[in-house]
């Protein structure tokens, strides 16, 4: 199968609002996931609201579906986002390629940038946040806390637009240097800058006021861009992608 074959991509059962934003000749693809869409289904009943409306093999970490007249197609998932976070997710049409790119994430070779709306205004226009986190996973749920753990977490923060008005909502750029679960959400909350709409680590009363004033209830965290180099098929390749910032970020910041 040629990874650049548009006939293949025309038959991919993308979830609601999912868009392809970058594709390289090896079959590495970047997808823009809307808020509320699952990275993958945890159970068959979740397929209708996931990245692809297809069965997911948790062991192989790939989606599988039947293409008319062709047979079984597969797309391997490389990284994940919380369902409440929008933006970039990577996948590959080849399992070996997926494993190589996953290793780039594990070795912290992927340069990532997010943008978020937060309540409040950072004390500095630019800052490097360093924390030690505790991550607990139980029954399919993840909870992260700052302190009391042994996982170092580091992020760079840049203030893009300071907040104004009664809720003082600021737009910030966040560049994680480590990849801990819920890292950005917890680091923002620790500094009195909870992400707008965060229902786990956020300011619940401010979230209610914001939702009432704007009519929007999403979490305002977006995976904006990523770039890295990877080795595959005897050569080194450069890959980069960007998922445009959703319009509501610009309107409400």
Low-confidence stretches: none
* Rg: 19 Å
Relative helix content: 10-25%
Mean pLDDT, all residues? 93
User: How many DSSP helices?
Assistant: 5
CATH superfamily of the largest domain: Pseudouridine synthase
Order of helices and strands: HEEEEEEHEEEEEHHEEH
DSSP strand (E) fraction? Answer: 35-45%
Shape: globular
Helix/strand/pairing class, anyone?
alpha+beta
Overview in brief:
This protein is α+β, with helices and mostly antiparallel strands and 253 residues long.
How is this structure best described in words?
The structure is a single chain. This protein folds into two domains: 102 residues, Alpha-Beta Plaits; 109 residues, Pseudouridine synthase (2-Layer Sandwich), CATH 3.30.2350. Helices cover 17% and strands 40% of the residues. It is built from five helices and 13 strands.
Key phrases:
Pseudouridine synthase, 2 domains, Alpha-Beta Plaits, 13-stranded mixed beta sheet, alpha+beta, 253 residues, 13 strands, single chain
SSE map:
Blueprint: H1 6-10, E1 19-23, E2 28-33, E3 55-57, E4 62-67, E5 71-77, E6 86-92, H2 95-106, E7 111-119, E8 126-138, E9 141-146, E10 151-161, E11 169-176, H3 183-190, H4 204-214, E12 221-232, E13 235-242, H5 247-252
Parallel strand pairs: 6-12
Antiparallel strand pairs: 1-2, 2-6, 3-4, 4-5, 5-6, 7-11, 7-12, 8-9, 8-10, 10-11, 12-13
């Amino acid at each position: 199968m040629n990874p650049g074959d548009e006939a293949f991509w025309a038959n991919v059962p993308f979830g609601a609002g999912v868009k392809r934003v970058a594709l390289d000749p090896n079959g590495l693809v970047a997808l823009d996931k809307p808020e509320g869409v699952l990275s993958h289904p945890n159970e068959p009943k979740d397929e209708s609201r996931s990245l692809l409306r297809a069965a997911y093999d948790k062991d192989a970490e790939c989606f599988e579906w039947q293409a008319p007249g062709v047979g079984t197609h597969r797309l391997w998932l490389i990284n994940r986002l919380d369902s409440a976070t929008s933006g970039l997710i990577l996948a590959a049409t080849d399992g070996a390629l997926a494993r190589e790119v996953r290793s780039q994430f594990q070795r912290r070779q992927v340069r990532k940038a997010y943008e978020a709306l937060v309540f409040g205004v950072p004390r500095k226009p630019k800052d490097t946040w360093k924390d030690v986190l505790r991550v607990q996973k139980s029954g399919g749920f993840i909870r992260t806390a700052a302190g009391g753990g042994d996982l170092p977490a580091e992020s760079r923060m840049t203030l893009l637009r300071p907040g104004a008005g009664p809720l003082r909502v600021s737009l910030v750029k966040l560049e994680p240097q480590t990849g801990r679960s819920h890292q950005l959400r917890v680091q923002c909350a620790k500094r009195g800058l909870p992400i707008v709409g965060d229902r786990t680590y956020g300011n619940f009363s401010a979230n209610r006021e914001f939702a009432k004033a704007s009519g929007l209830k999403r979490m305002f965290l977006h995976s904006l861009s990523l770039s890295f180099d990877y080795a595959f098929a005897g050569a080194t390749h450069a890959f980069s992608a960007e998922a445009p910032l959703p319009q509501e970020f610009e309107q409400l910041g």
